[in-house]
């Protein structure tokens, strides 16, 4: 048994400033509402195209209920020329009363759960405003406080050792001690890509779906390749953000669920020191 | 059981599972709560104010070329009008049909289709964006609404135009829509009588439909038979200014 006298107390660092913590949770909540209300909106026309207009024979993705020779229906998802039977999940799924319904995404992942485009739009645009204002508050703070430069920009040394960092992540070996006080290079690059890539892109492609914004800033149609392209890119961004959140949550669990969540609520993060690790 | 203490961790995990299950039902209830809906509706005001700020009153919707026309322009909403007077007018080629313009105007008037065709007109190839998400490109020709309104003279208290239509969707009353004077006097706002070089067909709103190009499809009222200038629409039908608006869609549907 190791006497407590020689086990160093874990070091507690103050990891996240109050602005980062508040904007993080507001952002997380907004993204959840935006995703599920966005899927309600998508369900009003569960087909994607590239270009300005929607020609049915040039869809890049569609989710449909297709009648079979025996009169029954199957949910068919088409991506390019590939077809998948997604009955029960995409194209055809059960509504709240258990009846099969012709719908893109299933009711358990849309807001509201029943078919209601108007209400889906209300949720989406309210939380889009909250998301944008919260994001602007974060960006102003991040630039003003030095958060981007201090916490998010990878160091030269980190970039040089990126291969090693990837290898360690693959083996689920995560930094400890002094190294764990700052984000690792993969974390930094992922956060930068989301904060300065995916999130602005999802807003801009969303705005490009507005006929009024098209009249005010017609170049946005050219930047994204047309109104229907903007809609498709918006959908891809939402997919990318969802994948990021999934990986993010997996990493939260893999690197210490409670320590991570506590640090995102109170700011305090416990560093497992090398000595403490060896002492166990 | 009473002595069993939930650890904070298992409490949170159980709470999370139950929370997930009630989340959907809770959100559906919230969606239907009038007070909560009023909160969500705040976003529309923000969108309208900001878009009106960045959007010059004259900035035009993009216009396309003949090569961009949709092979098939989907006709949505009403595609057939049941009203017997309308059916009679359709059979007669709308020769006896009249577009009424009344309400807060100096000179209430009723125009025949032939008269409408002699008014200052505009042809434009524009993209129609349905609120459902699809887009189609069509060529529209019609009388510009602005000069027409100037000729009938709006009274100073007029702030909106209400478009009363011949069709009914479902079992509710006739379709109607409204726009404000900024959109009404926009150069691309026309009462379209031709589509893709031919007279409008019934599915697309014969004899005339509104084209208000910086708005979503449901604002582009079909089968318009009366334009009423009003100071507000609180007393008209559901009070929200349009058929879909009364069902929860935005009046200012800038996005």
Automatic annotation (TrEMBL), chain A:
It is found in: Cell membrane. It comes from Hyphomicrobium album. It is a multi-pass membrane protein. Coiled coil: none annotated. The keyword Ribosomal protein does not apply. It comes from the Bacteria. The keyword Ribonucleoprotein does not apply. This is Cytochrome b561 bacterial/Ni-hydrogenase domain-containing protein. The chain crosses the membrane at residues 25-42, 123-144, 189-213, 233-254. Residues 15-267 form the Cytochrome b561 bacterial/Ni-hydrogenase domain.
Automatic annotation (TrEMBL), chain B:
This is Molybdopterin-dependent oxidoreductase. PROSITE patterns: PROKAR_LIPOPROTEIN, TAT. Residues 95-231 form the Oxidoreductase molybdopterin-binding domain. It comes from the Bacteria. It comes from Hyphomicrobium album. InterPro entries: OxRdtase_Mopterin-bd_dom, OxRdtase_Mopterin-bd_sf, TAT_signal.
């Amino acid at each position: 048994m190791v006497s407590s006298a020689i086990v160093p107390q874990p070091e507690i660092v103050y990891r996240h400033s109050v602005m980062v913590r508040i904007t993080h949770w507001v952002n997380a909540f907004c993204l959840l509402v935006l995703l599920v209300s966005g899927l309600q909106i998508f369900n009003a026309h569960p087909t994607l195209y590239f270009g300005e207009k929607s020609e049915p024979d040039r869809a890049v993705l569609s989710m449909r209920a297709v009648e079979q020779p025996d009169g029954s229906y199957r949910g068919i998802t088409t991506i390019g020329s590939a077809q998948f039977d997604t009955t029960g999940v995409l194209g055809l799924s059960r509504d709240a009363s258990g009846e099969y319904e012709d719908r893109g995404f299933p009711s358990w992942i849309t807001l509201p759960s029943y078919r209601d485009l108007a209400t889906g739009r209300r949720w989406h645009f309210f939380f889009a405003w909250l998301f944008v204002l919260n994001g602007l508050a974060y960006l102003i703070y991040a630039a003003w406080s030095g958060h981007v430069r201090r916490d998010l920009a990878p160091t030269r040394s980190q970039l040089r050792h990126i291969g090693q960092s990837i290898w360690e992540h693959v083996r689920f070996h995560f930094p400890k001690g002094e190294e764990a006080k700052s984000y690792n290079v993969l974390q930094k690059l992922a956060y930068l890509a989301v904060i300065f890539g995916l999130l602005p892109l999802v807003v801009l492609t969303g705005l490009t779906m507005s006929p009024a914004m098209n009249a005010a800033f017609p170049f946005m149609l050219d930047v994204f390749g047309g109104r229907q392209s903007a809609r498709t890119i918006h959908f891809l961004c939402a997919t990318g953000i969802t994948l990021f959140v999934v990986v993010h949550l997996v990493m939260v669990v893999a690197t210490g669920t409670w320590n991570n969540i506590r640090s995102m609520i109170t700011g305090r993060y416990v560093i497992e020191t090398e000595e403490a690790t060896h002492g166990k | 059981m009473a002595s069993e203490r939930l650890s904070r961790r298992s409490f949170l995990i159980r709470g999370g599972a139950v929370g997930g299950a009630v989340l959907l039902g809770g959100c559906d209830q919230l969606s239907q709560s009038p007070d909560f809906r009023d909160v969500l509706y705040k976003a529309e005001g923000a969108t309208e104010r900001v878009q009106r700020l960045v959007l010059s009153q004259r900035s035009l919707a993009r216009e396309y070329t003949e090569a961009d026309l949709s092979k098939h322009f989907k006709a949505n909403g009403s595609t057939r009008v049941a009203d017997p007077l309308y059916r009679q007018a359709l059979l007669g080629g709308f020769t006896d049909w009249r577009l009424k313009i009344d309400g807060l105007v100096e000179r209430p008037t009723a125009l025949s289709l032939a008269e409408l065709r002699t008014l200052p007109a505009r042809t434009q190839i524009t993209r129609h964006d349905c609120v459902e998400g699809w887009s189609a490109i069509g060529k529209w020709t019609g009388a510009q609404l602005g000069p027409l309104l100037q000729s009938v003279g709006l009274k100073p208290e007029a702030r909106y135009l209400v478009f009363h239509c011949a069709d009914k969707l479902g079992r509710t009353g006739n379709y109607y829509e409204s726009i404000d004077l900024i959109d009404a006097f926009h150069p691309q706002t026309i009462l379209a009588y031709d589509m893709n070089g031919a007279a409008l067909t019934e599915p697309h709103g014969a004899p005339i439909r509104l084209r208000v190009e910086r708005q979503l499809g449901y604002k582009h009222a079909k089968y318009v038979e009366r334009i009423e200038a009003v100071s507000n629409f609180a007393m008209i039908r559901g009070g929200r200014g349009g058929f879909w608006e009364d069902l929860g869609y935005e009046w200012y549907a800038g996005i």
